[in-house]
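Exam revision sheet. Question 4 asks you to relate a sequence to its structure. Input first:
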Amino acid sequence: TIPARLLLTSNDKALWAGEIAAKAKVAEPVIAEWVSTWSGGFSEDLEAMGALGEGARRQVGVKLEKRRKQFEEAKVLYGLERDDWAMYNMVWSRACYLGPQWKDEIGIIPFFDMLNHTPKENVRLSSLGDAMRGFEGAPKPADLDEKDMLIIAKEDIAKDSELLTCYLNEGKVDSEEDRDELAARRMVVWGF
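Answer key, structure tokens:
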């Protein structure tokens, strides 16, 4: 369980990454320590793009330009500086949708942001409130809030096995255009 008070969230759908990057710079000590451990993140060294198809490479360029424009808006609104670009992109690479209980806000969740990607995840993320939907008569743990986030196993997981999640809802991809869109998004947000 990850307490709701430790999440960095934003209601601003267009500029949320800028708001969170600004919060991370001046956050409470627990969050500031966690943010200080972040490394890597997005790189504009796109040599890995060689593995992408032509359509996906074009979409990467479009997505990067959109990201740069959003960053320019966020710089003005949240007082970010030019060198906050790396933090802005690390925020993007670690964020997820929080679900209906959070009114579909976007946020960063300690620990969950360190899980690796696979299309065949063995855990999923849910708020307690969303997980309890359909179980209205079930007792709610007294020490948990409806917005506390849970990492829920989707199957039995052997001791010392890695917890894996799917970063994107890859579902059924019917067209080459859809595959290019997913490949471009993965490249721009996570670098693979």
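Marking note for examiners. Confidence is low (pLDDT under 50) at residues 40-45.
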